[in-house]
C-alpha cells in the first residue's frame, strides 16, 4: 500500500515537467526580444541624430561650426558651437573637482575605516543624493548656492558657471563614492594585512596600497562621473543661463550643449529651419562626447584591472 500511495502523485509531476519544457522553448526568444530592445532603441536614436544632423552639416560649413560666434536667431544666423562646448567642459570640470576628492575620501573611509554598522548608515545617506530630481538641484543652485557665493565673490552674476558646477559635483558624489568603494572593497584582505604587517599605518595602507590596487575601478568611476556631468540638463539650464558668448570666466553666464537643446525645444526654432536642425547637430556632438567618455572608462578599466 505504501508503495502504491507514493507512486500515485508522480503522474501530475510528469505532466507539469512536460508543460514546463513546452514553455521553455519560448523563453530564449523572450530573452532575445528583451535584450534587443536596448539595441533597437540605441540604433533608432543614432539614426535619428545622424539623419537630421546631416541637413545641418550640409548647410553650415565646418569652419563656422568650430567658431566662437553663436547667434542662431539673428537676421544672419551664426552657428559656432565652441561656446557651447566650452560651457559644457567648464561645468563638468568644476563638478569633478568637487566630486572626486569628496567621493574618494568617502569611499576610502567606508571601505577601510568604517565599521559595518556605520557603513550601513552612511552609504544609504550618500546614495540618497542620487535620488533627488535634477530640477531640484537646479533650483538649489540658483536660489541658495549662487546667493551664498555672491557674498564671497561680489562680481558673480546671477547666472554663472561656478554655481551649477558645484551642485553638479554634489550630485555626482554618490556615483564616484559607490563605484570607488566597491572597487576598494574587492581588494583582497591579504594585501591590506601584508601592508599592515610591514609597519604601515592604516592610512598608508589605504592610500599607498589599496587605492593603487583598485585604480581601474576608481578611474572608471571618475570618467563615468564626467560623462554624467556632460549630459546633465536641468541644473545648467536653470543656473548657468543662456548666454552664448565664449568665455573662460566661471563667474559669468554661459550656455552648455544641453542648455541649448532645452532652450530651442521650447519653440524658438521653427520646424525645418537650420536652427531646428542645429539641435540634432548639438545632440550628435553630445552623443559623441558621452560615447567617447564611456569607451575611455571601459578601456581604462580593462587596462589597469588587477586580477587576484
Quick summary:
The chain has 308 residues and is mainly alpha-helical. The chain has helices at residues 2-7, 10-24, 27-59, 62-65, 82-113, 116-127, 134-152, 162-185, 189-197, 202-213, 215-230, 234-239, 257-268, 274-303; strands at 70-71, 78-79. The longest helix has 33 residues, at 27-59.
**Proportion of strand residues:** under 5%
Low-confidence stretches: 1-6
Based on Cα principal axes, name the global outline.
Answer: globular
Spell out the helices and strands N to C: HHHHEEHHHHHHHHHH
- CATH architecture group name of the largest domain: Orthogonal Bundle
List the keywords.
two-stranded antiparallel sheet; 14 helices; 2 domains; 1% strand; mainly alpha; 308 residues; single chain; MetI-like fold; disordered N terminus
Description:
This protein has 308 residues and is mainly α. It has 2 domains: 2-59; 70-303, MetI-like fold (Orthogonal Bundle), CATH 1.10.3720.10. 75% of the residues lie in helices and 1% in strands. The chain has helices spanning 2-7, 10-24, 27-59, 62-65, 82-113, 116-127, 134-152, 162-185, 189-197, 202-213, 215-230, 234-239, 257-268, 274-303; strands at residues 70-71, 78-79. Helix 11 runs antiparallel to helix 14 (274-303). The longest helix has 33 residues, at 27-59. The chain is globular and about 75 Å long. Residues 1-6 have low confidence and may be disordered.
Amino acid at each position: 500500500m505504501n508503495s502504491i500511495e507514493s507512486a500515485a502523485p508522480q503522474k501530475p509531476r510528469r505532466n507539469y515537467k512536460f508543460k514546463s519544457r513546452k514553455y521553455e522553448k519560448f523563453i530564449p526568444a523572450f530573452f532575445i526580444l528583451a535584450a534587443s530592445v536596448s539595441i533597437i532603441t540605441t540604433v533608432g536614436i543614432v539614426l535619428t541624430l545622424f539623419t537630421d544632423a546631416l541637413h545641418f552639416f550640409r548647410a553650415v560649413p565646418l569652419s563656422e561650426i568650430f567658431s566662437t560666434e553663436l547667434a542662431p536667431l539673428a537676421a544672419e544666423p551664426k552657428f559656432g558651437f565652441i561656446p557651447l562646448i566650452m560651457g559644457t567642459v567648464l561645468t563638468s570640470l568644476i563638478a569633478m573637482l568637487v566630486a572626486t576628492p569628496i567621493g574618494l575620501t568617502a569611499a576610502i573611509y567606508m571601505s577601510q575605516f568604517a565599521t559595518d554598522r556605520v557603513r550601513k548608515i552612511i552609504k544609504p545617506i550618500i546614495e540618497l543624493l542620487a535620488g533627488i530630481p535634477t530640477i531640484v538641484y537646479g533650483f538649489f543652485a540658483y536660489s541658495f548656492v549662487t546667493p551664498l557665493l555672491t557674498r564671497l565673490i561680489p562680481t558673480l552674476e546671477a547666472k554663472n558657471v561656478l554655481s551649477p558646477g558645484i551642485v553638479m559635483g554634489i550630485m555626482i558624489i554618490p556615483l564616484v563614492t559607490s563605484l570607488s568603494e566597491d572597487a576598494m572593497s574587492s581588494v583582497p584582505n591579504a594585501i591590506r594585512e601584508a601592508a599592515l604587517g610591514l609597519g604601515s599605518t592604516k592610512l598608508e595602507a589605504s592610500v599607498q596600497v589599496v587605492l593603487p590596487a583598485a585604480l581601474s575601478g576608481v578611474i572608471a568611476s571618475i570618467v563615468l562621473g564626467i560623462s554624467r556631468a556632460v549630459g546633465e540638463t536641468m541644473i545648467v539650464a536653470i543656473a548657468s543661463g543662456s548666454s552664448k558668448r565664449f568665455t573662460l570666466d566661471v563667474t559669468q553666464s554661459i550656455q552648455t550643449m544641453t542648455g541649448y537643446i532645452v532652450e530651442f525645444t521650447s519653440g524658438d526654432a521653427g520646424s525645418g529651419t537650420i536652427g531646428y536642425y542645429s539641435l540634432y547637430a548639438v545632440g550628435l556632438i553630445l552623443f559623441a562626447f558621452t560615447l567617447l567618455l564611456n569607451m575611455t572608462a571601459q578601456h581604462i578599466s580593462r587596462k589597469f584591472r588587477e586580477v587576484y
